[in-house]
Amino acid sequence: MARTGRPREFDRDKALDAAMALFWAQGYEPTSLSQLKACMGNISPASFYAAFGSKEALFREIVQRYLETYGQVMAPLWDETLSPREAIEQTLRGSARMQTGHAHPTGCLIVLGASNCSPENHSVQYLLAAERARTRSGISACVNRAIAQGALADTPLTETLPAVFTAFLHGMACEARDGGSAEKLEAAIESLMRLWDSQSMVLSGSGHGGG
Amino acid sequence: MARTGRPREFDRDKALDAAMALFWAQGYEPTSLSQLKACMGNISPASFYAAFGSKEALFREIVQRYLETYGQVMAPLWDETLSPREAIEQTLRGSARMQTGHAHPTGCLIVLGASNCSPENHSVQYLLAAERARTRSGISACVNRAIAQGALADTPLTETLPAVFTAFLHGMACEARDGGSAEKLEAAIESLMRLWDSQSMVLSGSGHGGG
DNA sequence: GAATTTCTGGACTGAGTATTATGGAAGTTC
DNA sequence: GAACTTCCATAATACTCAGTCCAGAAATTC
């Protein structure tokens, strides 16, 4: 049962992808309606508002789309079939590769998408901050799970691991934006994970560094 | 020999401080001339342009001012009277405390000040990117110095340390902006430095963790 | 006090902002 | 083909943007 009336002439999905690239590269506020309409195939204001509602509504839809596609590199955090260590390492590595990808803007839309905002757009800023908070809790949950399983020692140091991984993860957005390569970031991740291993109570496999 | 003519009525330094707070909190583009003039004491456009030249010139002056004041937390990186390890730890700790301070906006102006930019302001973006590159090279220099001194092993892992510390440092801007406390960040730094110690060839003091 | 210099208030550019209104064309369903 | 629904192009909304200009006022130096 197709809808009656004249169908829209442009491809809504392709328009969304083009708009995502623009928001991703420039952020929410500096991206103007003119740019958006242009990159969507020179659609008219009327078509834009009919299809997407408003600039903010479009951005919210695009954030959702981003989370369901590129953002899936964070999925391991909530995959309890993985060991907590695997979950975190896979997330970091996947994020590093995604953010340095060459088929789209570098960096992370959730970290960089609304970092510069005037007061009237705090709601957009909050949208992304809430998603970052969700990531933080996911990382914390992994560490807590590891401690509960006895895989990780319950020490003052292990309690700091969530903050270490989170700051590093969010910092990768800056490094990727500044041109850092996936290889460089992945090598850093490999080193960072030894901090976990040094507190690991499951001593199977590689040891823990040494002087 | 004071300059002749009518002196300006507002305090230029105080105006700069107020403008810095605004740019720091909102970033370059979303901060409008109206907001700037208002926070500088409702000065007129004429006074503004006479005193500061343009919005971009003001921003550049403020970045310079920031580097000479708050940005001095990075100074240990180039202080060769410090051991490389001390230099990096002091920089990270100082940065954590500064960015979470309550007397000014949270986060880091150099990381967050122009992260969202339209194409016409790439020069401003570049200004901050260059400063971040300087930081990266400072961190790398510290690690290289430690290796040259024989204080740090020359291994594949130690070669990744600059990327680890840099990503973490830049990530702190996001964490501070999202409300992370100095205590939390400093605890994370303390843990992160054990990565250094695990590769340290100077085994005086604390050992290197382990389960 | 006179001459000079610089600042300030306010009106004003021209361009760009997101968004809305109008009128007619195009395509759909029955 | 008729009725209907939806889309699109154009124009225009009210507003903000960074930046300019001018006339007059204020403070300086001589």
UniProtKB/TrEMBL annotation, chains A, B:
Keyword field: DNA-binding, Transcription, Transcription regulation
Annotated InterPro entries: Homeodomain-like_sf (IPR009057), HTH_TetR (IPR001647), Tet_transcr_reg_TetR-rel_C_sf (IPR036271)
UniProt keyword Nucleotide-binding, yes or no: no
Transport among keywords: no
One Pfam match: TetR_N
Record feature DNA-binding region, as residue ranges: 33-52
PROSITE patterns: HTH_TETR_2
Membrane-crossing residue ranges in chain numbering: none
Domain HTH tetR-type positions: 9-70
Record-linked PANTHER family: HTH-TYPE TRANSCRIPTIONAL REGULATOR YJDC (PTHR47506:SF1), TRANSCRIPTIONAL REGULATORY PROTEIN (PTHR47506)
Protein name: TetR/AcrR family transcriptional regulator
